[in-house]
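Notebook B, p. 112. Complex prediction, attempt 2.
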Amino acid sequence: GENVEQHPSTLSVQEGDSAVIKCTYSDSASNYFPWYKQELGKRPQLIIDIRSNVGEKKDQRIAVTLNKTAKHFSLHITETQPEDSAVYFCAAFLRFGAGTRLTVKP
Amino acid sequence: GAGVSQSPSNKVTEKGKDVELRCDPISGHTALYWYRQSLGQGLEFLIYFQGNSAPDKSGLPSDRFSAERTGGSVSTLTIQRTQQEDSAVYLCASSFYYGGQGSDQPQHFGDGTRLSIL
């Protein structure tokens, strides 16, 4: 089955800085790679996703890049704000990464 | 429109008892997923239903866990002879399915059932 690894487990940045979270997957058949944000006590919510036929997708301050050859994909958040503080999960097929706790310091 | 609904929101039970957790997916979503999230941890895949196909049960941790989906809509996750390590938040999600590889559409999550085993 699919195995997803996510790094780092925690990330602390200053407001306005960029944050990058990386994931690797094992199943070359995986073709859909979403990112979810989970605020404390809340449900996970999709923030951006990418399919295997593109290498990059951007939505305002958030972008995702995909390298199918290397089997890794990354989440990039620019101009971070305190409200970006949350746990972020990547996923491939039915498996989720362990999560990254992002803290944005004002 | 209504989102994914899970009930109960909280369940406290004694070790050894059976519990049933319910999930009502978004209308029109043919794919349904169950996950388990322990405190401060990630999402552990349990089971995946897609239409009338046989479910993917590869994530169920033991034979004490089972799930069914009636009429392609509501799903029930059953845990028999509960153990303290079963304590967690059980999340259900649903999505559309367009015939590609399973789980290739955004998942919409419910608020979860917080299960506590005494």
